[in-house]
Fold this sequence. Notes:
Active site: 146, 333
Domain Glycoside hydrolase family 42 N-terminal: 12-404
Number of domains: 3
Catalytic activity: Hydrolysis of terminal non-reducing beta-D-galactose residues in beta-D-galactosides
Bound molecules: beta-D-galactopyranose
Helix content: 25-40%
EC number: 3.2.1.23
Oligomer: single chain
Strand content: 15-25%
Structural class: alpha/beta
Binding site for substrate: 107, 145, 341
Number of helices: 19
CATH superfamily of the largest domain: Glycosidases
Radius of gyration: 25 Å
Largest sheet: 9 strands, parallel
Distance between the termini: 19 Å
Amino acid sequence: MTEYLQLATCDYPEHVPADRPAIYAEQQRELGLTYVRLAEFAWSRMEPRPGEFEWAWLDEAIDAYQRGGMQVVLCTPTPTPPAWLIRAHPEILPYDEQGRVREFGSRRHYDFASPIYREHSRRITRAIAERYGEHPAVVGWQTDNEWACHNTGRSYGGASAAAFPAWLEAKYGSLEQLNTAWGNVFWSMEYTDWAQVKPPILLVTEPNPSHVLDYYRFCSSLIASFQAEQIAILRERSPGRFVTHNFMIFESGFDHYEVAKGLDFVSWDNYPTGMLEFFAPSGQSDDIKTHFARTGHPDLIGFNHDLYRGMLKGQEGLGRQGAGTPSGPWVMEQQCGQVNWAPFNPLPARGAVQLWTAQAWAHGVDVVSYFRWRAATMAQEVMHSGLLRHDETPDRGYEEVKALKLSDFPLGEVPAKVALLHDYDSLWLYDAQKHSASMSYWTQTVTYYMALRSLGLDVDILHPDADLSGYKVVVAPALTLISAEQARQFSALAASGTRLVFGPRTAFRTPGGETWSEGQFGPMSDLIGAKLLQYDSLRPGLTQSVKYGEGTFAATDWAESYRLSGARALASYAGGPLDTQAAVIRKGHVTVIGAHQQELIGTVLSEILMNVGISVETLPDGVRLSRRAGKTLLQNWNPHPVKWQGRLLAPVSFTVLDA
Ligand code: GAL
C-alpha cells in the first residue's frame, strides 16, 4: 500500500490552560496532522522540586491528544535544567569562548562533561520513560533539543576543561606523542604535564589548529556519549518506539555522523528565511538575501535535507515501529510563519509553507512537523509565528497546510545518481585556517552543491567513509583532511570507473591537522597525477581569470594551481600571478578544480555527468527539480513568474509531475 507524507506539529501544553490540549488535538486532526511533539523544555513542570514529580498535567495532555486521535512524540527535557538544580550544582553550567560562565535564564545551560549533570540527565530520562515509555499514544522520542544550538556544543571551562587532558591521554598515550602529533615544537608549545593542556581559548594569537581539532573532536564525543546514555534508557523502558534527534541548519559544533549513530532516523529543524539571513551563498551579493527573503534559498534548504537523509545511510536503525509509523527522516520543526531570531524576519511569501513542505517530501522527508501549533504568548519567542496566532485564530501557515493534498506526496526513494562528500574534520580544520575572510568550508561545499542542483540533479550527501560504489559520479568539494585509508578507497573507486571530482585544498592535511610532508595531495598524489604549485587568496574585488575551452571565468575568493606529473591541464589561469598555470586538471577518472567559480564548476561537472550518461538540465535561477517515488517536483522559488520549457511557473509555486 502506498504511504504518503504525514504532518505533525510541536505543541506546549505547559504554556496553556489545562482545557486547551483537548481542543487543540481535535483541531490538529481536522487539519490533517498525525503527530504532536511535546515536552522538550518542560522539566520545571515535571519535577518542580528535587525528586518531586508532577505528572498529572502531562498525563492529561497526552490522554487528550490521544482522544483527539493524535500520536505523541515525547522528548527528554534536558535542554533546560531547572533553577533548583543549577542552584544546587552551579558546576553544571558551561563556559563560553571568553572563559565566562553561561548563566541560568534561557536554555542549554549545561556542560556535556559534567558528571553531575549526566546523573540528572539519566535520572529524568528514566523517570519520563518509566511514566510514558509504554503509553499507547507515545510512538517515539526526541533526545534533548538541537544539540549545540546557541553555540553550546562546546564548553570552554569547568567540567569539559577538566576532562580534556584525560581524553588526550587515552588518545595519545604519552605527552611525547601528543607534542609530536600537534607539532608543539613550533613556538615552544611542548607540554610536560597533562594538567597544562587547556581548551584553545583566550590565547595571545591564533591557536594551533591541531589543538583546535582535538578539542572539537573531544567535545563532539561528549555529545555522542551524553545522548547514548539517554538512548540506552529509552530503548530499555520504551520498547518498540523510535528515538530521533532534531539537528540544526549548517551546525558545525559536533560531528553529526558520530552523534547520529544509535538513532533510528535523523530529524532536522528547517527555518528557511532565518537560515538565509545568516548564511548567504558566497560569490553572490546581498541581493540574493533580498530576492529570496520570503522563501529562503532552495539550495541552502535542499543541502540540509540531503545531508540529513544521508546521515544514517548504510546503518541499521530499528526501522518501522508499527503500521503507519514512518522511518524518517523527519523535519521536526518546520517554519510556518515568521521566525524571531534572525537580524530581519520577513513574513514568508504566500505559498512558501506549501513549497517548503513539498520540497521536504521530494528530498526524502517522511514527516513534516510545523513549529509551533500556537504562537507563544509569553517570554522569549512571542514574535515567532505558529499555525495559530496568539489569539488562537488560524494564521496563514494554517490555511496553507489545510490546502495541501497529501496524496500528491507518496513516500519512496530519492533516485540520486551523484554523491557529494562532506565531513566535520575537514570542516573544522578548513575553518581553523581559512586563509580568506570570504571563504569557508560551507561556502565551498555549498557552491558545488548549487552547481549540481542548477543542473537539475538529485544529490546524496555522504561521509567519505560511506559505501560509494553505487554512484557514477562522486564530488568532494572540500575534503581538506584525508587519511591514507580514504586515499586507497578513492583509488579503488576510480579504478572501478567512478568519476571523482575534487575541489581546492583537497588532501592538503593529515588526519592530525598537519600538511602531508609530500605536500598536497599527500597519499592521493599518484591518483591525481599532480601536486600543488601555488595558492592564492583573492580579496573582494580581486579575480583570477581561468580559460576553459572557449570560455573565460573569473575566479573569486580562491585559486590554486598544480604541477603536473601524469595529469593534464583542462583549464589554465590567464594573467595575474598564476598566469599559464594549471587550474583544472584530470588524470583518468579523476578531476580537480582549483579555482572557485560556480559557472566553471557547473561547466566541468556537466561535461563529466553527460560523459557517463547522466542527463543534465540547466535550470533558471530559483527553479529546481527533485525526484522521489517516480514523481518529479518542479518548483519556482522566485517572487516572479518564470517561463520554462513551455510552462509558465507562477511565483513561489510547485507542481508534482508523473515521471
Ligand atoms: C529552534 C528551537 C525551538 C524554537 C525555534 C524558533 O531552534 O528548537 O525551540 O526556539 O528554533 O525558531
